[in-house]
């Protein structure tokens, strides 16, 4: 079987699994779990085989015309380069682990068949984005992911948080997709093709007439899909969905799609220095702002959500300085350890009966109850904080090295201003990342108080995948020196200067947070904290849903808890109340967009009801009155008709005589 045939099967198998799961979900529920796992697992095996065959060498292209359009044709095309085949392996491996984890996490969920089918469809859509060589086919996968995220984030639709989060995720990403679609058409109009290879060839030959406009339009869609400032606000709220969905969205699909898209079309963006500077500023604000917000969150999943936004900022920063190898390297590395973090967080929430870090800090023995989650989460947090020798250290260093080279003029793909922006913001974000990673670990696993409730041994399906994903979390970075051929031939090894500098500031951030925790932890014993909904016999998904509901009921918000023992509150000081709300961006958008739109809608409704309807109803009323008058004349009485005829004749005769006399007198 040829490599292109194998590659075509990779997105096709999860799609067929989704269709089959939906078809037999009600009639043969026993087949749902195998149909969720086996097609995705087979796709993972095939993706690995495709990656081995491609081998980091010359890109493999295959295409057939999908439909004639009369102008720019649309092709069903595959483009398999080193980036594509490695990202496909990440997507399929993480998706397989999520499907396996979900069999235990949602073991008693009545909606599991539709959930599993949507996860398979989500996976298939992302693989279509990864392998596609035509932008219109890529757009199909791009939009399917959007609708899948709507349904999966809203899985707990009984809760108001899930309903609002799913709608917000859909609307905010669609807000970015409108200019994105316009940008795709403008790009095709300039280059004469939707094929990625032809577009890149046209760009290399100077065939792009409006590079800045096209790049900025495309960046709007990327900002929405990959949760970059200013369209990032949907991602923290999307934590209202099940934890396995969060892991899939954050590690391997959806948010990775925007970064991957820019990496695929980087020469288009590099054709405009202004666009790269805009991307650099966007990435810098995202990195620093999300780090501050993560340090203030009480919900363990929202901490990880803001962490994802910040790490995506690093990837955007690498692209802003023209190094897509570093960006995709960090994308793959981040996908591994972020999947561990979210899936381990699901175990933690189930064991503690709460998603509140403040509540966990009042419990003891959580690490002993869930040793698998404890150790794997510890490793993943070290990778997140970029501590050597874990994967996050090497991939984050690749980003900082690329920024350093651009800032010092060693690379000229992007302006030096973009390099300095990313380098400084990256170092600041490294301090914040270490700080919120240490805070999460201390509050979750070093709590003091009553013994954590015993929920029994965690299911093997949930704990085994943690260890599977921990392997690349530990070892993937060590392959940096051997992966140059897969990443455009660029070296990904760290430099001494940035390695020492970033590791130093990381250790400072971690130690300062530890000191703040030691200072504030004495307050925990005399500050009772609620929001615990522990049910020892309940499935993890039910515990998570009730934990979210109780958190909002007790604290009034899912993001914050009035905890004076929180080291994040001490470190942020007066900035805490702003950081916990995401710096009031939701309130700003409500004032600038939501309220004016609603006011306009109310005005339109008033005009429709009170003005338009008045004219329409008035026309009907006049017609009805005329009909009533005519109806009264139609009595059916012959004598009345004869009398009326005579009266009319008499009136006409009199009028004729009067008219004749008037004419005679004149």
Automatic annotation (TrEMBL):
GO terms (BP aspect): ATP synthesis coupled electron transport; electron transport coupled proton transport
The protein's name: NADH dehydrogenase I chain L
Keyword set includes Membrane: yes
Domain NADH:quinone oxidoreductase/Mrp antiporter transmembrane: 132-403
Source species of the chain: Streptomyces filamentosus NRRL 15998
InterPro entries with a match to the protein in the record: NADHpl_OxRdtase_5_subgr, ND/Mrp_TM, NU5C-like, Proton_antipo_N
Membrane topology field: Multi-pass membrane protein
GO cellular component: endomembrane system; membrane
Entry keyword set: Membrane, Transmembrane, Transmembrane helix
